[in-house]
């Protein structure tokens, strides 16, 4: 569960960075 949440947050940050 925590891993999925962390992954989602990381992906979101990556999208914002891009």
Sketch the major β-sheet.
Answer: none
Structural class: mainly alpha
What is the average of the pLDDT values?
Answer: 86
Counting DSSP E segments of at least 2 residues, the number of strands comes to 0
Percentage of residues assigned to helices: over 70%
Low-confidence stretches: none
Shape: rod-shaped
Give the helix tally: 1
Strand content: under 5%
For the record, give the distance between the C-alpha atoms at the N and C termini, rounded to a whole number: 26 Å
Organism: Nothobranchius rachovii
Protein name: N-ethylmaleimide-sensitive factor attachment protein, beta
What does the model show?
This protein is mainly alpha-helical and 18 residues long. It is rod-shaped. The protein contains one helix and no strands. This is N-ethylmaleimide-sensitive factor attachment protein, beta.
